[in-house]
């Protein structure tokens, strides 16, 4: 029998065993006033299944503590009051602001990362400073303190074989991030990308889903003339060429029509209507229409089921400013200080018996992941779009988000044009296409 593949931590659906273990841990914390007080402020927790049972971990400190009974210890304890890090940190804090203070702080951080010596399944050992230096970058602050590397380190030190892993949230959301208790989220790429890649060497890890070719239907051209092409992109296909080298929507259309220009994008996981230009003049005009908000777009989506009833109005507007999560791009966060205005109108079509929600979105701005964050964030609709594992969905299939309508002016004739491509929202893989233009 082939060996089970270990969880690819940057894009995954938790195994049934990991899900059950997380529920046991949540129940244990909720029933313990001591543990609940430690974690209720909001903390990412982790579960690692090994050949000898389950291990539990938490990110950073819990109530100022690095050690909590029942959870794996830190890779390196920098929090000891009498340790070198805290003593030197206090000395640096007392220094006057300037070059000397900045240099001393960088040297201390450099020293700290040289103390974090981690293992992998091949028995190799390397410090975090070297892992990042080999890639030509410097480790961000806090690297090595997330639950996932703590869990793997503890398992390797005790000769345990990792089988599966997952990280989930407990407590209140914070920092504008999309976080809900009990939901699983991918490991961050900024702090954990290089680190976990080293620590998972020697494990039979699941492939990165983003490295796979799109799995659904081929693109379909809905309309074309000498100036524009309107086509429907399948889920899993990039809008424009990316780093994985796979064929994008732009590549596919260029193979059919020759030179084609991109005017906007859909996320790789999102399906639906896009408009492309066939000459430079058409591109300039379409770019202007997108920039000025003259292009009207409509999306259909399915929100994931939840234990709590969906109590939002049938129609409404969500206005939450967004910015990129610096250490975990392309994830977005709600940022009221530096974020860009993002406005989405929504209309609930139906709430299904299993509590999933069939919904229409009409974005009035075009921010990255706007609909996905406005859906999942507790100040938005509080439900991730089904299949959106980046923002907490457990559904293993595709993202249930489809661009079903677009309206714009033809760049040459100035005729107002409207196109519709309605997908079957129950499966999101067999669109019933209809085209309208006027």
Describe the structure.
The chain is α+β, with helices and mostly antiparallel strands and 438 residues long. The chain has two domains: 16-76 and 116-207, no CATH class; 211-433, Pseudouridine synthase (2-Layer Sandwich), CATH 3.30.2350.10. Helix content is 24%, strand content 23%. It is built from ten helices and 18 strands. The protein has helices at 16-30, 33-39, 84-93, 99-115, 128-133, 147-157, 189-199, 249-257, 280-291, 370-376; strands at residues 43-50, 53-58, 117-119, 125-127, 162-170, 220-224, 228-233, 261-262, 271-277, 296-303, 315-319, 322-324, 332-334, 343-351, 357-363, 401-409, 416-422, 432-433. Strand 1 (43-50) and strand 2 form a beta hairpin. The model is unreliable at 429-438 (pLDDT under 50).
TL;DR of this structure?
By secondary structure, this protein is α+β, with helices and mostly antiparallel strands. The protein is built from 10 helices and 18 strands. It is globular.
Give the assembly state of these chains.
Answer: single chain
Q: Which class do the helix and strand fractions yield?
A: alpha+beta
* CATH 2nd-level architecture of the largest domain: 2-Layer Sandwich
How many beta-strand segments?
A: 18
In helices, the fraction of residues equals 10-25%
**CATH superfamily grouping of the largest domain:** Pseudouridine synthase
List keywords for this structure.
single chain; 438 residues; alpha+beta; Pseudouridine synthase; 2 domains; 10 helices; disordered C terminus
């Amino acid at each position: 029998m082939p060996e089970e593949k270990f969880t690819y931590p940057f894009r995954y659906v938790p195994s049934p065993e990991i899900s059950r273990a997380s529920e046991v841990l949540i129940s244990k914390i909720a029933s313990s006033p001591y543990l609940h007080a430690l974690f209720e402020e909001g903390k990412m927790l982790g579960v690692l299944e090994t050949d000898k049972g389950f291990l539990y971990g938490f990110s950073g400190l819990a109530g100022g503590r690095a050690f909590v009974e029942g959870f794996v210890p830190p890779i390196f304890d920098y929090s000891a009051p009498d340790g070198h890090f805290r003593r030197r940190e206090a000395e640096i804090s007392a220094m006057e602001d300037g070059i000397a203070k900045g240099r001393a702080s960088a040297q201390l951080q450099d020293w700290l990362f040289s103390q974090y010596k981690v293992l992998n399944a091949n028995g190799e050992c390397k410090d975090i400073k070297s892992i990042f230096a080999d890639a030509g970058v410097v480790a961000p602050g806090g690297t090595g303190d997330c639950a996932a590397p703590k869990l793997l380190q503890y398992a390797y030190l005790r000769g345990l074989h990792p089988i599966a892993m997952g990280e989930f949230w407990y407590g209140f959301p914070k920092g504008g991030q999309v976080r809900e208790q009990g939901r699983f989220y991918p490991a961050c790429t900024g702090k954990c990308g290089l680190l976990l890649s080293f620590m998972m060497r020697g494990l039979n890890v699941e492939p990165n889903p983003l490295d796979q070719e799109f799995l659904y239907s081929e693109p379909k051209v809905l309309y074309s003339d000498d100036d524009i092409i309107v086509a429907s992109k399948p889920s899993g296909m990039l809008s424009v060429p990316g780093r994985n080298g796979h064929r994008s929507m732009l590549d596919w259309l260029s193979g059919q029509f020759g030179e084609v220009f991109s005017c906007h994008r859909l996320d790789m996981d999102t399906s639906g209507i896009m408009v492309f230009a066939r000459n430079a003049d058409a591109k300039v005009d379409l770019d202007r229409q997108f920039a000025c908000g003259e292009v009207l777009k409509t999306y259909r989506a399915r929100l994931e089921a939840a234990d709590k009833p969906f109590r939002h109005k049938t129609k409404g507007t969500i206005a939450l400013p967004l910015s990129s999560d610096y250490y975990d791009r392309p994830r977005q966060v709600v940022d009221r200080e530096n974020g860009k205005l993002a406005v989405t109108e929504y209309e609930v079509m139906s709430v299904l018996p299993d509590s999933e929600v069939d919904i229409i979105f009409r974005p009035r701005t075009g921010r990255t992941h706007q609909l996905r964050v406005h859906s999942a964030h507790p100040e938005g609709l509080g439900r991730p779009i089904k299949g959106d594992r980046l923002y907490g969905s457990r559904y293993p299939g595709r993202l249930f988000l489809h661009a079903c309508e677009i309206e714009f002016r033809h760049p040459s004739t100035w005729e107002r044009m409207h196109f519709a491509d309605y997908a079957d929202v129950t499966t999101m893989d067999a669109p019933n296409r209809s085209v309208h233009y006027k």
